[in-house]
Design brief:
Chain lengths: 128, 262
């Protein structure tokens, strides 16, 4: 036990080094992005599902939509309030959310995800 | 004393495991299922059939000029790239072909000349026994149980092109390059395709779902009929009853659903 001092110093240095990124970046986290809604989306007030659900689960919902539309030919979506929507990313989602840069891209960039929806689906289908 | 300490540690360990597993179990319980409170349904105007089929009256389509508006109508609604110069990269949904290329198994040396020199409209046959579906390793292409359409889910296509090798009709095309710059007039209501996926005619599944006939049928001035092959009173069955028809490469047993009146 005569190296107790050295060990303790070594340990302290090791812990400091390994936690460096955490305390160095403390309080410097990038702020969560604010998404902008189009006038149309604002007027509609609610999306096809409640906002919180859409924020967390829109990708799962789109997956269900794709599956039902292509495999079963079922294209109508009826939400909990009984409201009907056409299950179409191009013609329903992107019609309201026609501002790709201010809506989709902001969150996706922040979360560092790059979905390739727009390789095929045309942003802003009505060209407003 | 020793015994009871061991017992305490066992209980503590199991409890810790239980507490740790709870969030994981909750996550599993929440996943799957349809989600809160919604359901999906079929559109009210959607057209139904057991097996959609097409009868093309080639007697009414004597020249390339007759076919052109039909082909164009399809390309326009589906964002088919038409200005690709390299023939190897061409994308085809519906196209014109010579009798010898269309009906390779029906080429007698001496044929009715009017039939032989007529242009034929070719497209995906939406076979009842589709070999492309069997070849697809990801089930990106599938035969829809509900209406017999051989459809593609482009999201799933990995671009292996096994389906193109399997299809005896050349009805499938591969996007060797990004198709977007080659689309003349974009229909924004319909998606384009991306580089690296296969595409083909979809029998206008998106139009049938809202009660419309396929674009080519609408543009044909009655030369193309469309209907349910298994409904005795459908337009296609009436035509098949009254006219002699041929199909492409029928001997292969894929049971094409596109019939030609010659």
């Amino acid at each position: 036990m005569k190296d107790k001092k050295k060990i303790l110093v070594g340990l302290a240095v090791f812990i400091a080094a390994i936690t460096f990124p955490f305390w160095y970046n403390m309080g410097k986290a990038a702020p969560a992005p604010e998404v902008e809604l189009t006038a149309k989306a604002k007027a509609a007030k609610v999306c096809v599902m409640p906002t919180a659900y859409m924020q967390a689960n829109h990708m799962q919902l789109l997956d269900v939509w794709r599956h039902k539309v292509t495999r079963n030919g079922e294209r109508m979506f009826v939400n909990a309030d009984g409201k009907m929507f056409n299950m179409s990313l191009s013609n329903t989602c992107l019609d309201c959310h026609s501002n790709y840069e201010q809506f989709c891209a902001r969150c996706h960039n922040y979360a560092s995800v790059s979905p390739y929806c727009w390789d095929c689906h045309i942003d802003n289908p009505k060209g407003e | 004393m020793n015994n009871s300490r061991r017992r305490f540690l066992q209980i503590a360990g199991v409890s810790a495991l239980g507490l740790g597993a709870k969030p994981v179990l909750d996550a599993f319980a929440a996943g799957g299922g349809e989600g809160p409170g919604f359901h999906v349904a079929r559109g009210e105007d959607a057209l139904d059939a057991k097996q959609w089929a097409m009868v093309i009256d080639t007697r009414q389509l004597q020249s390339s000029a007759d076919l052109e508006p039909i082909v164009e109508a399809c390309h326009k609604v589906h964002n088919v790239p038409t200005t690709i110069v390299n023939k190897n990269h061409e994308i085809k949904w519906i196209w014109e072909a010579h009798y010898h290329n269309a009906f390779t198994d029906k080429t007698n040396p001496f044929l009715n000349e009017s039939v032989e020199h007529r242009p034929f409209l070719l497209l995906c046959n939406h076979c009842e026994n589709p070999p492309c579906v069997r070849a697809c390793p990801t089930k990106a292409t599938f035969k829809r149980e509900r209406d017999g359409i051989v459809l593609m889910d482009f999201h799933r296509c990995i671009g292996c092109r096994f389906c193109m090798a399997a299809c005896p009709f050349g009805a499938r095309s591969f996007n060797f390059r990004d198709p977007r710059p080659f689309i003349q007039e974009t229909n924004k209501q319909f998606p384009t395709r991306a580089k690296g996926v296969v595409e083909k005619c979809n029998f206008c599944a998106e139009r049938l779902a809202v009660g419309k006939m396929p674009a080519c049928v609408e543009a044909s001035n009655g030369a193309i009929a469309f209907g349910d092959l298994y409904d005795e009173h459908s337009e296609v069955r009436e035509l098949l009853k009254e006219n002699y028809t041929i199909r492409r490469k029928q001997t292969l047993g894929t049971e094409p659903a596109v019939y030609y009146i010659v």
